[in-house]
Structure formats: C-alpha cells, structure tokens
Amino acid sequence: MSQVNRLPKGGRVDRSQPLTFTFNGENYQGFAGDTLAAALLANGVDIVGRSFKYSRPRGIVAAGAEEPNAVLQIGSTESAQVPNVRATQQALYAGLVASSTNGWPNVKNDVMGILGKVGGGMMPPGFYYKTFMYPQNLWLTYEKYIRKAAGLGRAPLEVDPDIYDHLNQHCDVLVIGAGPAGLAAALVAGRSGARVILADEQEEFGGSLLDTRETLDGKPATEWVAKVIAELEKMPEVTLLPRATVNGYHDHNFLTIHQRLTDHLGEIAPRGQARHRVHRVRAKRVVLAAGAHERPLVYSNNDLPGNMLAGAVSTYVNRYGVAPGRQLVLSTNNDYAYRVVLDWLDAGQQVVAVADARSNPRGAWVEEARARGVRVLTGSAVVEARGNKRVSGARICAIDLKNHKVTSSGELVECDLIVSSGGYSPVVHLASHLGGKPTWREDILAFIPGEGFQKRHCAGAVNGVFGLGDVLADGFEAGAKAAAGAGCKVVEGSMPKTEKRKEEAAVALFQVPHEKSTSRAPKQFVDLQNDVTSAGIELATREGFESVEHVKRYTALGFGTDQGKLGNINGLAIAAKSMGISIAEMGTTMFRPNYTPVTFGAVAGRHCGPLFEPKRYTAMHRWHLEQGAEFEDVGQWKRPWYFPKRGEDMHAAVARECKAVRDSVGILDASTLGKIDIQGPDAREFLNRVYTNAWTKLDVGKARYGLMCKEDGMVFDDGVTACVGENHFIMTTTTGGAARVMEWLEIYHQTEWPELKVYFTSVTDHWATMTLSGPNSRKLLAEVTDIDLDKDAFPFMTWKEGLVGGVPARVFRISFTGELSYEVNVQADYALGVWEKIVEAGKKYNLTPYGTETMHVLRAEKGFIIIGQDTDGSVTPDDLNMGWCVGRNKPFSWIGWRGMNREDCLREDRKQLVGLKPIDPNKVLPEGAQLVFDPKQSIPMKMVGHVTSSYMSSTMGYSFAMAVVKGGLKRIGERVFAPLTDGSVIEAEICSSVFYDPKGDRQHV
Amino acid sequence: MQQYSGFGLFKHSLSHHENWQRMWRNPTPKPVYDVIIVGGGGHGLATAYYLAKEFGVKNVAVVEKGWLGGGNTARNTTIVRSNYLWDEAAHLYEHAMKLWEGLSQDLNYNVMFSQRGVYNLCHTLQDMRDSARRVNANRLNGVDGELLDARQVAEEIPYLDCSKNTRYPIMGSTVQRRGGVARHDAVAWGYARAADALGVDLLQNTEVIGFRKQDGAVIGVETTRGFIGAKRVGVVTAGNSGHMAKLAGFRLPLESHPLQALVSEPIKPIIHSVIMSNAVHGYISQSDKGDLVIGAGIDGYNGYGQRGSYPTIEHTLQAIVEMFPILSRVRMNRQWGGIVDTTPDACPIISKTPVKNLFFNCGWGTGGFKATPGSGHVFAASLARGEMHPLAKPFSIDRFHTGALIDEHGAAAVAH
Amino acid sequence: MLHIFCPHCGELRSEEEFHAKGQAHIPRPLEPNACTDEEWGDYIFFRDNPRGIHHELWVHAAGCRKYFNATRHTVSYEILETYRIGEKPTVTEATVGEKKATTAGVTA
To answer: How many CB atoms within 10 Å of residue A269?
Structure first.
C-alpha cells in the first residue's frame, strides 16, 4: 500500500524527496514537507490510537495543535523516546519511528475495545468516586489496575542524549503567529524600525494562507507570503522563529517561546546542536495573532475515524496533496466551511452532500458549491455517523434549532468522510494566562480576549475577525499600534487586495440533536482525548456541578494534552443548555500555560547535570584530591570530610586525625568560613548592635567570638571577629551562613541605621585559611613565619600580621579544637604554595591533614556548638548555656535582646544544651535520637529533647554527645533515655557539655 | 442521601444514568445560622460536615464566594503525610491522617486516598541528622517513619539518580509509608455532599464583604446576597484570610504568597510514590491518570494573582531532571498557582480572635491539603464548644506574642 | 516574571536579580525594651498582607545590592513605583481610590 490517498498533484510537499518511516512496526513512505499526520493519511492509515476510557478506535481529526487523537510515541532507540507527540505538529523525517500509545494487542484489534463497549455504561464521569470503596484496604489493589490504564505514551528509560538551551531576548514587538494578521503586523512594525520577533508554531510561515483558496492582489496568497517573508528577512532588527510556540504569557510582558530547533531533522539533535531552545522574551509590545481553531459539531459517533474538521481536510488537500477519503459529507452552520467542498471538488473527489443547519444560506461560497452541483440540505445536520472502524455513512436529518429537535426521519447517505464545522474559536489562551477573562460575543458565537492590562494588541481571528481582508487590515493596524507604543515612528505600507464576497452569519449549533435523549443516543463526543461525552456533561450538571470549573473537573473536559482546544466551547455550551443559561453566563474556564506542552529539558535548559548548581572549591582543593580526601557538601562548598589512608574507613581515619591533633599537630582547610570586611567609624557600634555580646572594648589586634540572633532572640550565626584597626574589623561567619549574614548586615544598615558610617565587603574568596592545631603547632609555624609566636607576644584571642611561607599573612590565634591553634590567612592565590610549604615543614611533627568530621569531634569534646547542628532556629543563647556571650547591659537594645526576653523565652524548663555520657561507654547515641525521662511509657511518649552531636572520642576513650534537654541545666547528673528505631534504648547521664580540658589550659599554652 | 456503590453504578447504567440525584442543593440563605463557615474549600466543608455529624450542630451554612473547592483544594499537589517534627504539629497532622484512613467509607465517596508512601530525600550529613531526628520523633509520637540509606533508596525508587556524580548525591531518605496522595477535588465534593445531606446549607457565589459586630462580638456576615446572621463564625479562607481579618478589623501574622505547581502530559506509570527533596528543591508524584504532579517552593513576593514567576518553574524542573534524568524528554502540560497564607513558623493558626465568637483557621501555608480532615474536625469541635480543641490550642494567635512558636520550616521547606 | 526598576541603578531589570523582603515601612521600635511582648510580636510577625496596593521592600541582590521600596498591586502584580529607602510612596491605597469591598469592612 503506497500513499493511496496522495493526490496526483498539488500541495507544498517535495515529491522528489520521498522519506520512509515506520508506524506501529510497518514501513510507509511520505514526502519531505509532510507532517507525520499528513503522511499517515496519505497512506490510508485510519486508526492512530485507542481512546483513553472506552478504547474506541480513533483517527486523525485536525491538522494542527488542536489534534486530540494522533498523540504518538516517537523514537527508534530507548534514549530518544518522546511520549505524546502530536502527529499533526511533527515534521516527517527519514527513518521516523512512531507507534500508538494504547491498544492491545494492537490499535486495529483492541481487546479493551470490547470491554469499553460492555463496561462503558458503567463508566460515566466520576464513576470512580462512587465505587471501589469497600473494603477499605483494597483500594491500593483496585488502583493497581486503574493505573495500568493510565497515561498515553511512556518516558524513556535511558538518559536524554540531547541538550537544551535558553536565550534571553528583548524586543520592541513580539508578534505571535505568522498567519495573515501576524505577517501584516510584523511587516508594519519591521518597516517602522522596531526590533521584532515573529514566532509561529508551524514548520512554515503563512498560517491559513498556506492552504487558502483566496487570492491576494489577484495572485495565490502564498506569493504574498513569500514576498513578505523575503522583506522581513532583509530587516536586520527582525528575528523570524519558525517551529516556535509562544507557550506562556507571564507578568510584565515576559513571554516564553518554545522553539524546536532540530525535531524536524531527526529524533536526536545533530552533534553540537541544542534540540530545543526556550526564548525568554521581554517585549515592549505584543501582537497576539494566534488565529482561531475550528469547532467540530457534536453528533453521535463523531469519534469514528473518518470524522474530521472541515478546515483540516482543506489543509491536507491544499498543503500536503492528501485526500483522506473519497466521498465527503459536510455538516456545518457557517459559510467558511464550504471552502472544503470546493477544495474537495478541485481535488477530483466526490462531495456527497452538505448539511447546513441554516434554513436559507446564500453566501458566495454556498452558491458556488451549489453551482458546481453540490447537494445542499438546509436546516439539516449530520446527526449520526455510521461505520465500524471507519465512517461508512452519515445520517442526515432536518433539525429544529430552537427546540433542539430532530424533525425528519432523514436519510442515510454513503460516505467515507464526514467533515464538520461549528464555527471558530479564537485562540484566546495566551491572552488569559494572566487572568484576563475572555468575553463571549453572541454575534460571532465565540470568546474573544477580554480586557488585559498588558501592553498587547490582538489582531485577526483571535480578535473575532475572520474575513481575510479584515484580518489583514487588523494586522496592519495592530502592528502600527505596537510599533508606535514601543516608541517607533510608524511607516505604513499598502495592503494587498482581497476578494470581496458575500458572507452570511452562522447560526448557533454545538451539540446536534438526536431522536433519542442525550443520555440514550449513541455517544456524542465533546473531548475526544478524555472520552467526555455530551451525556457526561449533562450528568455532571444533573448532579449539581454547575460552575464551569466543576463541570470541567468532574468530567475531565479539557484536561488532555490538547487542553480542550476542540472541546471546551462545545462542552460549556452543552452545560449551559442543560442548565438553561446562556454561554456568557456560564463563562469559560481559565487557561494556564502552556499553550502546547513543553519538554522538561527545554524548560530546565543548561542548568542540568554538572551545571545544575555551581560547586565552590577552596584554593587547596587540588591538594585534597591528590591526598584522596572524601568530601562533604556544605552549602555550595566541597569540603574535605576526612583523609582516609589506604584501608581505612571513616572511623579509623577520624580516630587517627583526632589523635594527631591532640598529640602533635593537624592542619585544616578552613577557607570556606564566611569573611566580611567591615570598615567605617561606626563599625564598632554596628557590631554592638548585631552581636549579642559587647565590642566596645575590643582593642586593635584582638579577636572575639560573637553570637548573632534574629529579632526573636534565636541564635542564627556565630563566628570570630577581629579588630584590624580602630575603624576596621574582619568578621567570620559559618560556611553556610555567609551570604545570609552579609544580607542581614546590609538590610539593617540600609533600612534601619543608614546614619551609621560603615561598609561591608565580602572577602570570603579573597582569603584562604589554614588552621594549624595541636601542641606542636607553634613549633611548626615558627619554621615558616617571621612572626614572634612567643606566648606573651602573641597570646590567645589575638592576631598578628607577618610573612608565612614568604607570603603576607594574617594569623589569628584562636581555637576551635581546644588545642593551641593558629589560623593562617593568606591571599587565596598564594594559598596552595603556602599550604605545601607548611606540609613539607610539618613532616617531622607528623602534621596530619584533617577534615570536617575530625573538626566536629574535636570541637564537641570542647562543647563548642555548630550552628545548624546544635541549633535549629529555636534556641536562645541562654538555651545554649552561653549566657556569658550575652551583653545584658549594653546601652543599645541589640538585635535579639528584646526577643529573648519574651514570656516563652524566659521559661525555666526550655530545652537547654547539655552533654550526655552514655552509661555504656562503647555505645554511640545516634545523632537525632529523641530523649525521654521515662522509657517505659507508652506511645505517644513525652519527648524532652534530642541528641544534636554524638561521637566516639578516641582521646577520652568513651562515647559522648551534645543534646538539648528540657530544663537540662538543672538536671546535671540525672539520666535520660533514647528509645531507638530498632527497639533498643540507650541510657545516658546528663553532664556538662564541656568534656575535654574544661579549664581551657591547652589552648592557652 | 443516595448511597454510592458498585452495584448502584450498575443499576444506574441500566437507566442510562438519568436518575442520579444532585450531590448538594442550591439553597436560599436562612436569616440566621448557629454557625457560619466562611470559605467553601476542603477545610471549610470538612468543618461543616463534622459540626453536623459529630457535634450535633446542623443549622450551619458554608458561605463561598465562588465554587466549592475552588481555592487551594483545586490547586494543590494532593500529598498527604503526617511526619512533622514537633509534637504539636505531628499530633494535629496524625489526627488528620487517621481520618484520611477511612474517609472514603465515612463519606461514601471515594476520595482515592492512596497510601503509596512519601519519601524525603537526604543529600547532606545535616539532612541525615535532621531526618533521623524527625523519624525518631515521629515514631515516639505514634507516626510511622523509617530512615533509609542510599542503597535502600536506590532499591525502592526506580529511575532516581542515586549515583555519586550528581551535584548533591543522595545519602538516604525518610519514608512515611502511610503517606500518599488523594484526589483533591473529590475531597471537597465528598464533604460537600455529606454535609448537605446532614442539612448544611452550601451557599456558592456568595461573597463575604464584611462582618457585623455588636458589643465586640460578631453577629453575622455581610454578603453579596445580603446580611446573614450567625451565633458563631468560622473563617477558613486560606490565602484570603489576611483580607478577611482586615474586614474584621485586626491583623494576622500572615503573608499570602503564590505557590506554583505543574503537571506533565499523562505517561505510563513510572513514579510509584511521592518523592521530595528539600536540598535539590522539588517534588514529584504521579496521578492515576498518568500525569506527573510536580511542585516546589513559594514565590518570594506577596501575591493574590493565583500565579507566580516563571523562574520558579524553571528551577523546579531543573530539580526534577536532576533527580530523574530520564524525564528530560517528557513534556510539561500545564502550570498554575495557588495563594498560600504563610506564617512565621510554617504552622497554622486555629484560634479565637480579638472579635468574640469569630474564629479563624488559616495559615496552613503549603501544608493545607493533607490536614483537611483533621483541620475540619478540630475546628468543628472548637466552633461547637466555643473552646479550642486540645489539638488546636498550641496553634493560637497568641504564640506570636509569647514566642511559643512551633517552627516547622525544616519539615515544610519544600512546599507540598 | 516581574520587571523592576531599580531606583539606584536607574534601570528596568528582571526579577531574577532581586529578592522580595516583605512589607516596607516597618521601623524597628526605637526603644525595644519599652515594648510589651504584644507590641514586639506585632513588630516582628504581624503584617498587612493587603489584597491590592502593597508597599514592599526589595533588594537588588544580583545587582547593586541595595535595598529599595516598591509599590505593587498584589493581584495584578503591576509595579506602580519604586523609591529609595527613607522616601515616602506617592501611590497609596488612598490615592488609587481602592474602595469597594476592601474598605467596606465592618458595618457596626
């Protein structure tokens, strides 16, 4: 079977370029320029899928974005799979592999179809709400079978080989749609010198002009299209984007365009190219020229393959040279639909009859059809399609529109194609993404875009303007207005001449009446993809679902991948009729992005995989890698977690590292701590206000630990700040809190205390920090520095400037391990060299690099807190037993002071930070273990706190923990219990949180 | 009330479904009710239902400015779980969870509550600590929870990228197996139908435009359909609560933010549970229709527009592709936004107010849907008795003055 | 995505460069210690949260790092003005004439 439906001539396809493709395992041939849908129709493929609920056979209905049935799986390899591709929007390429998404064993002979016929009656809208309830525990089982029927296509199971990118664009005028109105608008705007983007979802520009019978300036319309495109292409400020769908209209004239760069070339993008691109456009003005979708009529069995939209058939004939049938019947309520009759006759096919719902249509096209011998039955409609897997006949009856009745017994005509047109629905989607409510116009039986506060102009069919001459004029006007609005001087051009023709208004017809009541007539489909019928909609209103949103949600009307482009208006017309109200009163549902679906990868762009989020490395990172360090993610930083030697696990490595620090000396890369340079005459006063403790008396050359609270009195950061000069301080913050603290300082300075003369500069990346810690740290440092390290010359909590490893350095004598420690800060780009010099010199002291895990153990032995681990935003300094760090008598009411004096913060039984010693010294309490006083109580238990930090101390030879315990500071010596998830309980004694060297002798040596 | 069952469905199919009754009436407002609930979303309807069913208060009206279940009930991502950290929150959400289990039968309406498990992934050591803390607290509070290691996660969640080369490799996960999803619209409709059957008047398209007070107590509401009297008024208007408070003459510690969500096109089931990640910042589940249901965090600014900003959608999908790289070629069908009323501690306000007999139930932020039955139940009890239900007491407005906050930001960091 | 005029940079820039920081014009009490718990709670937690004209604080985080105020409509999201810290808004609920239900409010 080879292209049985391909006409001998005509169409815009390239017959010299045949392309083979596969559908459901069979090979077919099409031509370059075909869509997949056109090629399938050319080959006489009737059934492209099975319906979602009733498994009824379905064929291609439309030729564009509104297609509900031809939703196919594409891809020849696993990683190239794409689910739910609309065949009407997929260009044919050589080797394309497509398949239907439902149907077993295949779409032609589907077993579920029989089930659908039998069980369909049991599946009205909402049937699942009414059943599968008993017994309660069986729902998951029922659901397992329900889920088997879920979904259309399938996701690939291998990772996407393609890349996607984003492009930020700014333009004066974004024109959406390159049909007659859009082309006209772009032309005027472009001629006026505006920076224009013209985007259209199709393979080619031209829209309806690509298949129209009408002429422009007496010539085929496509010639005008070509001329306009040629002129636009020459304009340097005009960007033309084919295969580019404007899918979202966001606030402040920000729009997204989903451009399919390579989908027409193959399933995977050519090497080095992005498959899709999302243009993120900020437009001064938008011209919305998105056109209109033809509405089908709703009659019985209107879902059989061979029922199509009238305009779609014209498109297949004129644009692709494909006639999807032989004998055509048209059912309509308007003049425009007659174009298909003339196109069909021109293609040499047979028109069986036209059923026109109007009593006396006399428009020009109607008369032309009559003149060519077409039988026009007035006051009539196709009430029912006949056929098994393809239309074989149509029953045409006279109908009474007013009383919604069939008034004649009618006749059954033989045909293989029924096309219908119930009018045109403007594509108002984008205009309502921002909440603008569409307005119903009874004169044209359509919703048009409502008032919008965006800077946009609607033109052409989307505006309810349908005649070609009027559309072009509307487009020219919108383009001029947009260009003027964007600040350009408008240059008008001349309009092409169009044909004058007598047109007659349509009559309102949505659901075609049937002899039987809606609930008993053969199924009349409203939303084909979701199997929503007119009977279903009537049932919804009967059950009290009266709001349009309720109808939609109860029946699933419009929830498909086509988002109800064909069915929504018919659906709400049926709902309105069944409630006896007008469509305007009923209103429409709101449209949300996307206009058509957008690939996840395209939305994500390049921010995937290695570029998902930046990694931050310290200056010594290379060295850590060479030493085989394991890394921990802290904020965006990669920090060495521990440095395992061959055969060591983490515990062994940490025990070794701890011992080295306690016995001799270790080195830690502390570069990730936030560092903020604070300068200005009021710097000291500022510190007084943001830290809990006092800074008035901190001399130059000294350093001090400080806590920072929020206004609620809860601790949120800590660190050491050193006085560099009278007006100059250097503040350190936690690694994860650096940005937060910086913003905190700025907001207070800029909004509360702008009168304070002080400036903040983040210098985290400028300085690299290496901490030497351990009893031998002084001896080691002395070998590489010119600074006098004598304990009296350089006492604890002071800092000095000098050379370290030959490089200018700031050395702080502060300690987070409780040992004699020096923090060496050097300019980051010298740091690796300095580090390596220290490591070299340290060999004789067994200098050991240690990571965050060892740091955590060592600091916990000393009871030093880690923000975020021992605090959680709900603890005050007093809760941490750090009252020594609270300046209760500072004159200025610093941030946190008032908050920590609120009623609840003064309770004596608050959770307080204490130490815990497990009774069994070999048992390590899990971090996060919850604590109770009475382990025997039943669940729910009364919990009194939890373990925040917990380790085995190789130094002390027993396990220990830090924990918050209700009233814990008054319970020193008492027992608490940690009931664990495995059912065991660990008992521990509450003790001071300082375990090692409580007097602090070691850090003061 | 017409009883629903599989047999009934069969019986009605013989009469072409022509004899199904209305699920609820369209009544005319009475001059005065014992209790008026402002807001016909899930929480409001549940409150009305439990008032009538459990607390014997049947002279009740629900006043809804639009359509029933049209606010966040219609816009959420349907996740149900109760694994909150702090006792007060855990008890409240677990109360809801217990009501979820059996809700379909109670309402004779299948709300499709599907306990397919909720996973919270851990990507850092601190994630692991926090998760252990939460799971331990959950279990001692009688809430189910497990902490899984990376290997178990890889076994239980197919196609999740558990490799070491992701930006934030997965170290483990918590799972609440009783958690899951429910059919959001059905929850509103099920409560509405059952409340209506008990005599509750559901007044749709009726907007409250003011509160009438006498001697510092509320005596009714001014609506677009005129004044309706009430002995007590309960306001359950989610994102619009701040606005309602303004009408009543006081302020709340609330900010209304846009919260966005999106769905893919329907695809064959591939995600079998709810998977969320705070660190990577996104979450995903798959509906019975096949849509991937995806969400993330709130937008930073206040907004009542039921829409947010596009970069939030971008970040969300970046997170989803980072977690499930195979989904890169799947397509997003629709995105939308709701209005969430967030509190400083990410916990709700269920409270008396400065106006006597006027009660507010709000501030559910991103956690409202999962609490629906529990919220309705404790609020009904409070409205019936005029005294707050014990589970509601910790959620009083007073806590923002005393400082007794219940900080659930950790548990609620990703909106869901 | 909002388009925000930074009054410090003098340019319209995309929202991605900014962070919203909540309601504007909430000065820190000059004497916190004189505040009751209720007053302090009001200061740190209670907000107007209007449905309509909102004066709010923004920071040009990925730009000049400066804070400024914006008057924005919370339903239409339209930004009516931006102005520096310390300046007063020229557009307010009163000047816009937001009447109707929003101010109908309590009737007795």
So the answer is: 18
